[in-house]
Amino acid sequence: MAAIEIVHRCLGERPIAARRFDNGIQHYVYEVSFTHRASLVIRMTVPEQRQAMVGAKFLSAKLRPLGVPLPEIVSSGVEDRFPWLLLERLSGTDIGDVLGDLSNDAIDRVAMGVANAQRCVSSIEGEGRFGYAIHPRMRRIAVGTK
């Protein structure tokens, strides 16, 4: 499996398992498990979606220092034939899997966390009132951009 091979190549340690997340709509995302370390997540995509992966790397570098709760990027291969990011595995369960079971207080706390993340995001330079771009001055980012 490509996910296991990429992680093995990056870390020099072979994962014991890879489990594909069954939610999400765009990329191939797997939790990879190890014998002697915490699980990681590998997010892979097709060449046509390279800019999404480049953009995720770019935005992570901008937003994590502001306190937006994004996983640390352990390694990346955005220039590989099939782009990928190796990420820390955040604790918890996907909100889509548990939202119906949460109390109103818990939903309020989630909403406050989202609002705080939006406040952090609004502090960086943007594309304009209604637009969205990974980088405000260009629609595409060069692959080597940090």
UniProtKB/TrEMBL annotation:
InterPro entries, sorted: Kinase-like_dom_sf (IPR011009)
Protein name: Aminoglycoside phosphotransferase domain-containing protein
Protein's organism: Pararobbsia silviterrae
Lineage, opening ranks: Bacteria, Pseudomonadati, Pseudomonadota, Betaproteobacteria, Burkholderiales
